[in-house]
Amino acid sequence: MTAQPPQTPAQPSYWNQAGGQAWVDLQDLMDRLNQPICDAVVAAGFPGAGGAVLDIGCGAGATTLEMARRVGPQGRSVGVDVSAPLLEAARAAAEAQGIANAEFLEGDAQTFDLGTAAYDAAISRFGVMFFADFDAAFANLRRACKPDARLAFACWRSPADNPLAGAPIEAAAPFLPPMPQSDPDAPGRWAFAKPDRVRGILTRSGWRDIEIVPLDVPTPIAPGDLMTLSLRMGPLGGMLQQADAATQAKARTAVAERLATYETGGMVAMSSACWLVTARA
C-alpha cells in the first residue's frame, strides 16, 4: 500500500500540501513496507559502479540514496520530485547518512530540463504514474539518458490485484458522500495497471527492449499502522476532514472493523501486487 492522491492534474499542489506532509510524517513506515520494491528497482536499474542515475518521483529519497550507495562515490544519484517537503526530508536523510553523491532537484520530470544524454539509468518506485502527459514525460526522460541506458520502475497492477487498497473506502462509503467516479487511465495510482498501455507509452517515447513482469511483494503490517495509512495517505482522509465529528467516528469505526477481518496473529498479511518494468534507451 502506498500514497494515492486524487486523480487530478494538480499533482504539485497535492504533493506540496497534504500529500507530501503525510508522506513525510509516515516516511519510516512507508520505507519499511516498500523496501523490497526499492531493492528490486535498484537492482534492475543498476548501471554499474560509477554510473549516473536519475530517480523519478524520488519522494523522500529512499531509492535515490540506495542507488547512491550502489554506484559508489565515483557515481551520481539524482532524485527529482515536485514536492518541496519530501525533498527537504530527502536532503536531510542524505546528510544524516553521509551520502555525498546524492542530489535532489525540485521539478516535474515531464517538463524539467534534465540535460541531454546525462544518465546511465533512470529508475522509479511508484513515481511515474502521475504525469499529465505520459508520452511527453517518458520522451523527456529518454532525452536525459545516454544511448542504451537502463530504465527500471515499479508501478501498481490493478485494484483487483490489490484488494486491500479499496477496503477502507468501501467500509466508510455508507457514511460519506458518493466518491466521484475515477478514470482508470487518468494520472493516479492505477494508471499503469494495463501492461499493453505501458508498453505503448514507452515505445512511442523511444524506449526499446521493454519487459513487464509481475512483482508480488509480501508487505505484512500491524493493524494500527494500516489504519493510519488508510486514513492519511489516500482519498478517504480528505473526505473525512470535511465530515462532521459524528460521521468521522462512524466511518473510522467501520474502517477499523473491516481491516480487523484481515488480521491474523496481530498482523495483516498484506501483499503489494506491482509490475516491474524495464527497458533501454
Automatic annotation (TrEMBL):
User: What residues does the Methyltransferase domain cover?
Assistant: 53-148
Quote the CDD domains the UniProt record gives: AdoMet_MTases
Q: What Pfam families does the annotation carry?
A: Methyltransf_25
InterPro entries, per this entry? Answer: Methyltransf_25, SAM-dependent_MTases_sf
Molecular function terms, GO-annotated: methyltransferase activity
Q: Does the keyword S-adenosyl-L-methionine apply?
A: yes
Q: Which UniProt keywords apply?
A: Methyltransferase, S-adenosyl-L-methionine, Transferase
Q: Which terms under GO biological process does the entry name?
A: methylation
Q: Which PANTHER family does the record associate with it?
A: METHYLTRANSFERASE, UBIQUINONE BIOSYNTHESIS O-METHYLTRANSFERASE, MITOCHONDRIAL
User: Which named protein is this?
Assistant: Methyltransferase domain-containing protein
